[in-house]
Amino acid sequence: MCQLNVRLVFIDNQEERMAEVTHMAVMPGKITLSSLFAPPRDLIGFQVTEIDCLRSLVVLEQLAPA
């Protein structure tokens, strides 16, 4: 089974890591992350900045408010 590690980078440069992400849906203005044993998590105002398939890593950065 393929699971992702997701690194969230916030505007203030704080970081949060999410392990065992099994599904990521990217829509305008919203990214939804799902895993097997936790409810889906909606992230508003983030963008995908890196996908590293060798490390199973996705980096999401929070956008500055408009």
Short characterization:
The protein has no helices and six strands.
Report on this structure.
With 66 residues, the protein is an all-beta fold. It has one domain (4-62). It is 0% helix and 68% strand. It is built from no helices and six strands. The chain has a six-stranded mixed sheet, with no helix packed on it. A hairpin with a 4-residue loop joins strand 5 and strand 6. The radius of gyration is 11 Å and the shape is globular. It starts with a strand and ends with a strand. The mean pLDDT is 94.
- Describe the largest sheet: 6 strands, mixed
Looking at the structure, what is the overall shape?
globular
Distance between the termini: 39 Å
Helix-strand category:
mainly beta
Query: How many whole angstroms does the radius of gyration measure?
Result: 11 Å
Number of domains: 1
Compute the average pLDDT.
94
